[in-house]
Amino acid sequence: xxxxxxxLSLIASLAFLVGCEKEEAHYLSEIQVSSSYVSVPLxxxxxxxxxxxxSSWTITGMPDWLTVSPTSGSAGETTVSFSAPSSLDxxxxxxxxxxxxQVQNVNxxxxxxxxxxxxxxxxxxxxxxxxYLVTGTVTNIVNTTYGNWYLEDETGEIYIYGxxxxxxxxxxxxxxxxxxxxxxxxxxxxxxxxxxxxLVNVTVEKINKSLIKVEExxxxxxxxxxxxxxxxxxxxxxxQGVYVExxxxxxxxxxxxxxxxxxxxxxxxxxxxxxxxxxxxxxTTDGSKEYSAQQFVSQLGAIVDCxxxxxxxxxxxxxxxxxxxxxxxxxxxxxxNVYLRDWSGEVYVYGIGSxxxxxxxxxxxxDVVTLVGKRAEYKGTAQMSxxxxxxxxxxxxxxxxxxxxxEDDPDKYYMVTGTLKSIANATYGNxxxxxxxxxxxxxxxxxxxxxxxDNRKNFLEKAGIVAGDxxxxxxxxxxxxxxPQVNNGIYFSHVSAN
Length: 498
Fold this sequence. Notes:
By secondary structure, this protein is mainly β. The chain folds into 5 domains: 2-110, Immunoglobulin-like, CATH 2.60.40; 116-208, CATH 2.40.50.200; 212-299, Immunoglobulin-like (Sandwich); 304-393, CATH 2.40.50.200; 396-495, CATH 2.40.50.140. Helix content is 9%, strand content 55%. It has 6 helices and 36 strands. The strands form 7 sheets. The chain has a 5-stranded antiparallel beta sheet with strand order 1-2-4-8-6, with no helix packed on it. A hairpin with a 2-residue loop joins strand 15 (183-193) and strand 16 (196-208). It is flat, with a radius of gyration of 32 Å.
């Protein structure tokens, strides 16, 4: 650690010198800066460089603690100022100056960037850009290429976004042989991304291998059937004894059946709900320190049929829900991101199938689809994540005259738009649409797909739809006493005449 401190101090000292003594303008012909290193006093202050560009330029990559002025300009010579308030700890940033497709880096250092030993809680509460030294246990490995994983100590948990190998290179995480349960000491700069505290591209300082790990499971994929059954975990345990923790919220369906040496057998109850899962923790000790390993087990479940409103009220989790509605809007056809609406409400669907599946299925706005997926959430907004389309009805958009020419077929659905001419029954929404030449009777205008009973009643009044409005409905063509009609019309949209 002392060696690392000395090296960082030397860099900071050199940066201070080059910040005070003008170095030869360099690197690119499109952009020339009087210094590629800028130092700012730890007590706060500013420094500046001269920038020469052949055309317009911009500076990006500024952290919150650094003020740069100006951040853009035109061709010619410009003095650029770098300012920062006082700081208790040293910090640094690498900025990019772009001009004519070329990029020049400028490094800004304030004080001496030292590594501070800290707990997870101290990292979470501390400032971004500061480098921390943290020791904790690996709880979950998310990406084995870049080395994205979670580190936890007794004070909290932080996310590690990128792990360098022993030579400082990226994309070689597996060279460390890290496993869930290992105790690791890492150092790296803190950042906060969408509310998640991260240490980025960390350096591994020390690894203390766990004395306990999961050797095998039965079933091997750790997925239990709907009807329940036994789940066996065999441990490689070099510690003293085994302690098993089943999370409290899973104890109503998963229990310990037996413990024999390093083999633990669990019993899962029959699943009457949707998919569910939990993470079991196994602990041991060497007499002074505790070690742990974890194993995730899931159980298939029944699919819960529900309305959109019921789906929105459900909790985020692994339960599978089946909802049916009309595609009200397509946000991204390539990924199948859509808004799905039934009589009770509207929900955002983040992806129907995999990329390209939505287009392969020929789906579009107005079509009726049945989706199965999990209740998810993004920035506090409910959504269905990766919905699987299990059924769909293609809806054809037609004019009133085209609709009148169609043959009766209760299984073919059309979308038709016209001006609301008159209302025959306000309770159920029996009405007449017109295009100015042709009239079309709509036998029921209901608030959305799936409405039954009282939920069908008085929709026009609730939606503020009156004569003169332009109204779009969906439904099949039937004929009653010689009069063609839209049978049990589903509301899609309307435009007020006013």
